């Protein structure tokens, strides 16, 4: 645990308590062993004049929706201290009333909701208060004799309290326990199974207390021989059958959730070490590292043994029983599918609606797996009882955090593969797909594809679509990262130079057939088993206006594209029984692609006796067709508007007399 405080950095904030609060909050947020994804909270008490010239005490406390790692001054709503202290003296206060009262005491009604721990921060009689869910401390807490161990480790300088629900209940409990204490005798508070509070009138001291407390717990774990040394990652999936099983797992979870969901396989050393434990059924069924994680991970994972898909159904039934056993009047069962799973001997799986959600669950799991295995070496893993975790999972304030991001885009959770994705129509399709919520494997023979898209929703894969082994390798990366395949956009192609049939170079013909026709059959053939496990699966072939209206000198291109179109028609017939829709687009004159250089455009326009602008719009509607137009129609074909259409051929050319 590194103390990141630097006097030189802090000096510029010496006269600004709020900016100093921002600085140390970010120091805490930079360390994932302290806080994860919005966890933890910090505050500073400041006395200042209001609009009427009156002096009032305010608590600037972390606001809901902000992350300590990136928080700015607007992330600290100011709440009147006198109101918060009055609230602490109430006998009862509902969650809804607590939030309402806190908002009524804010000096800026447009600021975010104050942390649910605002009352507790107000009660602690020091200017700066820091709160984290420090892994090492909570790990020690989650052992059979955790409280005793912590008391022996920290002595009399630490207040150690049992777990109670966060918010008003916790504030009330701490208030009652600390009425008669001398706060100056203590460096912090440990809340069992929850986390750590430190405090001081100086930001540097409060922060240092936090680092020292956590470092001491880390050192103890090391001294007890409980530190972990995971081995190297091994290739634990045996082949296509395991990949298809993975796709089947993802499909089943999506069906239970009634929406397309992603699934990521983690086979890092820690995940594999956990998946190889002989006592998995016991240690995986105890509960999360801290109850705050339950809204992201649920209480426990699914254990995928012996039949992985059947295990998903088993988890669902057990979750519904868990809800019925613990529910209160008026509560409705949440989605009963697992948020993560352990695949014995292979690794762990995460399920979510977006790549970002998968990343959050994965981060939480990495810390949880480490803590569980460490606690096992210290006497055993003992999380909170089921009822306590349920209460937080169904706590209305926690549910509100999830509802904020509940609505998704049209293709949210869908998984796509786009060939020829480095430029032109393919690149535009990738961009349109991610804008509508999908994740994408963007493949292209151009190595630049690997860094073309700066988003976690896209995997850029160099792939020669004429090479079957390259295709299967790309599919393997797609399925392990996202869980399956719903949408195939078969777009890769080349535009050979013009040549009459009698003058055709054999190599030019063969290359066009290989790329513009045969590669599409190879890609489709490899994808079909995974599309069968997809959610409303769809295939879109990007063909050409040259199919219905060929031109002189374009035989190598037109024949290949016509063959592709025929392939699509037959695929529509063969795959309809599997619910896989296959449709074809025929673009024409899409000028913002690589083949249409300024030189080529000028030459072609001159050939027709037109200006470049006239040449670009030489269709019935007198409109220009762009890659983004093709991409938008492609996404529509993959989505709900064309859910009942297959075998169609749709022109996107502005209207062509010869085609019509």
The total of beta strands comes to 18
CATH class of the largest domain: Alpha Beta
For the largest beta sheet, what order do the strands appear in spatially? 3-2-1-4-7-6-5
Q: Low-confidence parts lasting 5 or more residues at pLDDT below 50?
A: none
Total domains: 4
How many angstroms does the end-to-end distance come to? 71 Å
Report the portion of residues in β strands. Answer: 5-15%
Identify the CATH homologous superfamily of the largest domain: Class II aldolase/adducin N-terminal domain
What would you call the quaternary organization?
single chain
Please tell me about this protein's structure.
The protein has 660 residues and is of the alpha/beta class. It contains 24 helices and 18 strands. The strands form 3 sheets. Strands 3-2-1-4-7-6-5 form a 7-stranded mixed sheet. Strands 14-13-12-15-16-17-18 form a 7-stranded parallel sheet, with helices on both faces. Strand 5, helix 8 (168-177) and strand 6 form a beta-alpha-beta unit. Helix 6 packs across helix 15, helix 10 packs parallel to helix 14 (308-326) and helix 18 packs across helix 24. The longest helix is centred in the last third of the chain and has 26 residues, at 506-531.
